[in-house]
Structures are given as structure tokens and as C-alpha cells.
Amino acid sequence: MFNSISKIVAISVLIGANFITPAIADNGTEEVLLGVNLTEKYLELHVASNGCTSENDFSIDVNTGITGAEPLHLTVLRIKPDECKAEVPDGVTIKFSREKYKLNGYYAMTLVNKIGTTSQGR
Q1: How far apart are CA 89 and CA 6, in angstroms?
Q2: What is the pLDDT of residue 40?
Q3: Do 92 and 53 contact (CB within 8 A), yes or no?
């Protein structure tokens, strides 16, 4: 009996890990954000930049989990590094439409990304 439960738990952990990990590995690098703001229409992300950062450089993974119950888990992935040479010490703010990501209305969300000044996307 104990062996069966152990196998079920191990399989569940592996399935859960595979559910989240491929999105990060296949679609970019998890961005360390300088800040975030949520408005009625936009998810505003303050990110590091070398002068050429745009919305198209990012992907937002909205993970609803197996049940779809709140909170949703949002992960911001940088899919294209900013290889320009400008000095932008304060970074830039980029707006993402909540409607585009089906985040209209009221939601409890968990942001998976770290907040700090150590972005690897520069």
C-alpha cells in the first residue's frame, strides 16, 4: 500500500514539474522585473533595456493549473535579448493588454518572476 502511494506522489510531482517547466525552457528566459503595475486595461512591466526592448521581446505564460481555479500564475519570459548598446539605467515600462491574455475582469494572480535589478535580458 505504501509503495503504491509513493509511486502516485512521485508521478504527480513529475507531471506537475512537466506542466510548468517546458513553458519556461521552450519559450524564453524568466525575466527579473524591475517592477509591475496592474491597471484596468494593462499589465505594465518595468524591465531592463539596452535601448531596443519592446513588447515583442516577451511572452507571458498564464498558467491556470489543472483546475483553472485562482490564483492564476503569470510568468514573464524574455524571448529575445536586447542586444543594443544604449544606456538605459532605469529600464523601460512596457504595456501588455489584459484582454490579449484573457485577464479581463477581476482575478487573483501570482507573479512567478522575481523583482530586482539583475535581469539577464540586457
Answers
A1: 50
A2: 92
A3: yes
Cell of 61: 505564460
Q: Could you tell me if 49 and 122 are in contact, meaning their C-beta atoms sit under 8 angstroms apart?
A: yes
| Alpha-carbon distances, residue 18 vs 12, 24, 26 (angstroms) | 10, 10, 12
30-43 confidence digits (pLDDT tens):
999 999 999 999 99
Q: What is the DSSP letter of 108?
A: -
Those residues with Cβ within 8 angstroms of residue 106's Cβ, 6 or more apart along the chain or in another chain: none
| 88 φ/ψ angles, rounded to the nearest 5 degrees | -130, 75
Give the sign of the dihedral formed by CA 26, CA 28, CA 31, CA 36. negative
pLDDT band at 108; cut points 50, 70, 90: confident
Rounded Cα gap, residues 40 and 56, in angstroms: 21
Confidence of residue 69 (pLDDT cuts 50, 70, 90): confident
One DSSP character per residue, 23-51 reads: HHHHH-EEPPBSEEEE-SSEEEEEEEESS
Take residue 121 and report the three cell numbers written for it.
535580458
